[in-house]
## 1
Amino acid sequence: MQAGRINQVHLHYSRPAGGEAPQRSSDAGPVDWESQVLVDPQDLIHVEEIVGGLASAIESPTTPAITVSGAGGVGKTAVTHAAVKRVVAGGRFTHVVWASAKNVRFSSGDVGQAAVDSIYWHDLLRMVCEQLGCPLPPSQSLWEGELRRWFADELRGARVLVVVDNLEFVHSAQRVIARLRDLGVRQPHKVVATTRWRVTEEFDVRDFGIRPLARAGTYDLVRLLAAGSTSDLQSAGDDDLAPIFDITEGNPFLVKLITRRFVVTGRSLDRILAEVGAAGEHELGGRVRTWLFDRSLDQLRESTSEQEAVNLLFSFCIGGRGGSLRYDDLRSETAAADDDRFDHILEVGCRLGIIRPSDHNRRYSIHSLLYQYTCPLAWSSATAG
């Protein structure tokens, strides 16, 4: 396996045994884009505004590229899928491609293995070419040129929408969008990428941030998921469901995981919440931590340093679960070398969704589960008291 860089972003170039890639038959026909979407069938709630806005932006000829950003589990893929389906129904594009940068997904139903944290560039190219019906030569070194020719000749007059899902690396969305543009995916075509890293540098890339559900929306989702089962969650009152919001803070992935586990296993809600919150003591909690936080925490360390990342997270242990810190207090606790360095560390944390600003960017907090994983002694002391 060879590793290449695109402006500091690792793109791994996979090569099958023997050094040659399989050639796709030109008469095999294009692959249906919806068969490539890694998302559980679901009813979406409280996202009509963001889905409608995203669909309008995809259809707009003045928006050449779009990113859909947000923390792990907030529903970036589901929202993007809903918007793309709406656009496809309107006939705006002649071809649609959906390529996932992850080849394994974490299922909220069976709590399987965490996804692979790599972007395989040639795998991505293969998915794009297969869905466009573009035949690939045996040598991977020729794939980019063939796709560029395909756009210039075979897709002349077409309108292609390319969605690249699950770009987890820092800056990977910008770099992959730029690389695809170089291959011909530019107006009238369009690129949409989902990513945890919010894009701000590129003035011609529009970002849609996905936020967690509010308290009322969380309760609605729990009741919707429990509907039709024998579980009493479908008719539970707000007070009964409050602990679910307190630990999930409206993250749809966590809400679904907890609700489905309650419905299927027959375990008490208190026990399930304890399993989710115990990253070091319970397998479920460890896998939740891996899926929601570990990739972003790795990126925080790589973009700052090991010690700076640790200092930033441990600073929140003094505030208590669900608490927040003022800028000056957080600056003091992190012991950064100077104000410019601290601002850089804080910006990286915010853009990765690890640190959440509030009160007009005067106070900062972390997710309550991340607090439990980071500050186990503080959490144990608080719950014991």
## 2
Amino acid sequence: MYKYIKVEKEGFKCNVTLTRSEKRNAFTPTMVNEIDYAFRQINDDGDIKVVIIRAEGPVFCAGMDLKTFEDPTLDVINPHIVNKNISLGEVFDSLLKPSVAILEGNVIAGGFLIILGCTYVFGSREIKFRLPELELGIFPFQVMASLLKVMSEKQVLQLCLDTGYFGTERALDLGIIDGFLEDGKAEEVINSFAEKDEKALKTGIYAMRRLDSIAPDERFSFLKNVLDELKRSR
């Protein structure tokens, strides 16, 4: 079914694993659309309460495979999925279930779109992070939007201007990750969703995602309507 990812359902959990390890899990248009397709299936599955994002190989994600975006003929088309012109950030914003990123390899460039799109992020202490775009004559434009979810504008700009690697302690201080895999907190967070109500989780995340597009003086009315609709669905 999939060329670049693996999707495995396990009770209330669903593992989505990047499997393009030979290319450091750099994402192509097909991979983005495969993740989008998987997320749409997950959103519609009432049994799934939490999504775990993993990656095969020594690098979690090296960002965008620029060659495949410039020349789509270099990508491997998945005949089962229609390729849409969508960004990875949009795809993660469309997921309506809590998500946990498990980082056992470095995160580079557009790989930040994945982890910053997750509800929780836990990484191995020895991994590194890097935004090298300026050295390539470009800028981490899309990553900026995701970084602004967790840090100030000044911190975002400084991070985008610094093209060197930084470690997990700084990532923790900046709010990019939430803890270390070695501490065992990740499994605790994942298992905490076992007894939670799937419809309430999904509706809450939907409402949160909509708030930015609603005028401040209309938000309480919107949220009341969402709550009323959730109660009527019982």
